[in-house]
Please model this.
Amino acid sequence: MKNKTIMLGNEAIARGAYEAGVKVSSAYPGTPSTEISEYLAKYDEVYTEWAPNEKVAAEVAIGASISGVRSLACMKHVGLNVASDPLYTFSYTGVNGGSVFVVADDPGLASSQNEQDTRMVARAAHVPVLEPSDSSEAKEFVKFAYELSEKYDTPVILRTTTKLAHSQSTLELNERVEIEDKEYQRSVPKYVMMPASAIGRHLAVEDRERRMADDSADFFVNRAEYNDTKIGFITCGIAYQYVKEACPDASVLKLGMTNPISKKLVDDFISKVETVYVFEELEPVIEEQVRAWGHNVKGKELFTRQGEYSANLLKKVIYGDDGVVFEKQDAPARPPILCPGCPHRSVFSVLSKMKIHASGDIGCYTLGAVAPLGVIDTTICMGASISALHGMEKARGKDFIKNWVAVIGDSTFLHTGINSLINMVYNKASGTVMILDNRTTGMTGHQDHAATGKTLKGEETNAIDFVELCHAVGVKNVIEVNAFDVKTLEKVIKESVEGDTLTVIITKAPCVLLKGQKFPNVCKVDPELCKKCGVCMKIGCPAMTRDENRTVRIDATMCNGCGLCTNYCKSGAIETVVR
Model:
């Protein structure tokens, strides 16, 4: 089968893994990498799963590789931080069946808490990196990554970025290649990384990196394109597309492998070009290496380390006013906001009313930091809400956290929150931990997890019970409450924060965007009864507005009938009715 089609970068990566004969894939959802696993799950020949976190996903892939099959682990850039512990050691042990880590960076912070360059981690871990620049390369680079992995006995990182992951281009479909399982042979020096073994493996890593750097001059993923030799670019990934758009007549050294880099290729290219620019998003990884080899190139002194690059950015730098630059048009500001009917809004409305501070976490509920709710005080990383609250108590005492809670989503709790809760139990903490259980991984597009009862492939499975889990780790006081029962919720929170014991409050209500959710009711305002006090507006529901007379209006097309606003209307002007 050889036919052309159009695919998203993430879909193309999944297709590449399928065609390469991958048998096991494990991942944790994280934008912009999430869709890779969702597309891969459509291929019955590949076992795919959602793992509780990226460290587990990496270890599953490592185990599958050691057993002798090709494996895949997918994550976003901050997920690699979680997975870096096994990755560093996997670099030492090497593979049996080929193993690839797909890591999606997020220049411009479309959906992340920091900008981070995966190539920096890969260099430290001595792991090779491939960077495709379109969907066709994404598919083919995945297949090539498995060849490299098995030839050089190494895991390989395929680095993508938001723009590549979510843009489309054409590619050619090929048949799946069924790879024969490698024979497993027990080898303590190779796979058991105690100090005596690791010393020898470190030397093996250095040797393979030297060989790969030398050989990469002939890899098809690297190529020199000679045109006008007065100006040239060394570039990689999606930035290559901007170079070709902005400076189509320039010479280009396109590096598909950005770690290790071929010195021979770089030396040869620079010797033939008068002025060379290194054009790479985020950190000066290529630039620093090229400068270390004694070459005088232009780079980050002209191009920013922040955000996504563009053809316009390049035109401004190279041509100044002489270049044709299409300015980005200002669009009306659309700040992110919790959806109408979101159960997190109900929880935060109570916390706001009680003037409670919240140690926050990563998820939709991070939006509780902004007006008008203004509840979340901290957001650090996955699972940190609970640990941070614990640190506050140990630093300032029990009285300090009398008006604090930790809030964490159900998926994030299973990711790394459970470890933090165990730490609170073990170290005799008090405090209030709120698990906001909306039955999904909401922020990344409603993926299942270990407490939803469904696998990545949609199969029925065991569902973790949060109450039993919390009891099992030693929390004595665990309370479940409907997220929209604001009176009970306020009572439970008040008793908990004023107490001296560790309490877990589980607020339960499904995400309003979950498939199959039905909304038979809608909220309506009686303008004759509205006192125009604005109390109901403090919950920040986007379905609610005020007219020119300051009377509250509710958009029936947006309202999901959750009834939260009725709890705050003291004049009885709002009621919930059947649509």
About this structure: Residues 195-215 form the longest helix (21 residues). The two ends are 51 Å apart (CA to CA).
